[in-house]
Design a protein that fits this description.
The chain is mainly alpha-helical. The chain has one domain (31-141): Fumarate reductase/succinate dehydrogenase, transmembrane subunit (3 helical TM bundles of succinate and fumarate reductases, Up-down Bundle), CATH 1.20.1300. It has helices at 23-26, 31-61, 68-76, 82-109, 116-141.
């Protein structure tokens, strides 16, 4: 009698004892797909950040916040500003990455650099420029 290890097989009676696909463990997303997800994520992050800014501005114009934003700023900036620096880095990286990737899409709309090598080259350029300009801006504002 043969003993079958069930952890590698489907447990659904419709499919029987067929091996499950290891698609999530062996598949590696290509760089353009990862950057597409990051582009959408930074867009969503910037959208909600702008809404938060408008809400804070609206509250401050109605005298609901007098100096509370001053205290919030200093609370974030305490303990060597780790939390403040992380939020600043995330915001600046989102802005710069979204701008550079938008320029990349405008270049693609002209029909240029649509080869596989062109897509990968522009992907690395966008990532490198985003990190460099974020770090330079972080150094300038600190």
């Amino acid at each position: 009698m043969k003993i079958i290890k069930l952890s590698n097989f489907s447990r659904y009676p419709i499919f029987g004892l067929r091996p499950t696909s290891p698609h999530l463990t062996i598949y590696r997303f290509p760089l353009p797909a990862v950057l597409s997800v990051i582009h959408r994520g930074t867009g969503i992050f910037l959208y909600f950040f702008i809404i938060l800014l408008f809400m804070m501005e609206n509250m401050s114009s109605m005298d609901m916040i007098d100096y509370n934003m001053y205290y919030v700023y200093h609370a974030f900036n305490q303990s060597n500003g780790i939390l403040f620096n992380l939020i600043s880095f995330a915001l600046l990286f989102s802005i710069f990455y979204h701008i550079y990737n938008g320029i990349r899409h405008y270049i693609w709309n002209t029909g240029s650099l649509l080869t596989i090598s062109g897509v990968y080259i522009t992907a690395y350029i966008v990532l490198i420029l985003s990190v460099i300009t974020t770090l330079i801006t972080m150094l300038l504002i600190s």
